[in-house]
Amino acid sequence: MVANDVNTHHRHVQTRHDETTALSSSLPLSPQLSSKTLLKNQDHEFGQRFMMALNIAGVAFSLLVTVFSLFYVDVFLRVYRLPLHSYSTGNLVFTVVNTTNDLLGAWLLDAAATRMNRSDLIGIAGSLFALCFLTPFFRWNDPSDNETHDVAHFIISISMYDTLYSFTMILLGSLVIDNHHLTDKERVNFMASGKILNLFAAFFVARIGLEIFDTNDMHQFRIFLVLLALFVAVLFLVSQIMIHYHVVVHWKAARIRFSDVHRRQTHTPKRTERLKPQQVARDFWRYHNFWAWIGMELFLESQNSFSNAFLKTFVDRLIHDAGVSREGCDWLLSTIRPLGLICTILCYIPIRRLGYKKVYPILFATNIGLCLFMWFGADHNSTGIIIAFLIIYPAITGAVASAGFHLVMSDMVLEMKKMHAVDGRLDEASLAGLFMGVNALFCKPAESILPVVAANMLDKLDFISEENEDAVQRVLFKLLILPPLVFSFIEWISWRRYTLTPAATNQMREDLRKLEQKNTSLA
User: Fold this and answer.
1) Is the pLDDT of residue 346 over 60?
2) Beta-carbon neighbour count of residue 303 at 10 Å?
3) Helices marked H in 271-382 — which ranges?
4) How far is CA 268 from the centre of its chain?
5) Structure-derived torsion over alpha carbons of residues 338, 341, 345, 351, reported in degrees to the nearest 10
6) pLDDT mean across residues, the chain
7) CATH superfamily of domain region 3-20+40-512
8) pTM attached to this predicted model
9) pLDDT at 246 (0 to 100)
10) S-S: 60 plus which of 18, 137, 235, 501, CB 3.0-4.6 Å?
11) Helix, coil or strand: residue 46
């Protein structure tokens, strides 16, 4: 699923990229029809085949994000030996660049959706993402005589990856959140099914990568990365073909026939009004639930992406250096993400019963309790307790963030559509992509705060050498505990202002359906 999991300094690395549901449809769903009925959207049939195509694209997305989030920090700091102050500076620069790119990409995506279907871009976006994924891992190994060249490669390569990462995530995510014909139960079931696929895929590529990754010889690892990128590009193209064509295999005649879905459509795409920048800005400015969400999400995104990006560093310096074998650490690293996906699947159970609005505060309280226990009951030498924390904290935090993100976005897009309908603006373009773009506008800069702080603190201790091992471990222990402890309090305060509940969204969905029917009858 998409925007499957998303998490790393991309939390998305872990959090968002697993989730993708169905495509937006401009036709109201009658009470007698189930989501399995082939409904017509703007260009394509909406049914099981389309959902399977989105799952394939989501798995492809998750494969790249898993490998990138696990290795990119190690590659730049240990293989390329990029100075920590350069790493810190580069993070700040590419955050500005990529925040701008995210907002621009979301705008272009929603603008294009007024004349075409977003799903038409899956193949090309996924293939470009696979290509840009390779750029951080291919470079001269030894530091350059001129440090500027190394910093330039860091900024450019990470920016290329992150730009295509964000665009693909927003593309797949907008197909999830812009469909309001699925019930909450159907949407949750679809997301959970995608998590199961990602569970095995993430474990498989993590184990292979950890087996062949060697800081002294990157040759085999780079071959693995190229093969992975080619495989992922093929998966994205297969997803595109499944969306656009019915594939019929004639075994006796030994031929394959592609039936173009476009030619079978009887529904004429509805062209919506073009996006107006001033009106879009006013819509977001007056939308209080969105700002309550941002106040919580930017801190959750920051702590989650930092935990994902520095996970291998925490394991290597706090666990491996404490005497745990390399093989044991590799097994821990390769199982943490699948455990997180299992937690995400299980997280849908309380979400279905209580609603995500009540699940988030439970997460905040749990993280506060875990961090207080670590602060008062353990230290940097408590290897067993640190292992338990590294298993529990990323798993539950990533699970709630991943499971809740697209549900929250979907409900806010629904409320925005109702606001448009009440104002008599039913023909205006959907802002599904821009919801994720504006979200990135605030969350991406927040993601760079903790890496910059960590880099500056570790640089003072000469992180690369082993002379100050005890001091480095003390700092890493604090960096592991303090961010979730402090941020969870802030997240809880901001989340209290969020008002969308399952009952409220069900009522909005019904009100919007009536307004659309009324507008159609008047037309």
Assistant:
1) yes
2) 26
3) 277-285, 288-309, 311-314, 326-354, 356-377
4) 33
5) 150
6) 79
7) MFS general substrate transporter like domains (1.20.1250.20)
8) 0.69
9) 62
10) 235
11) strand
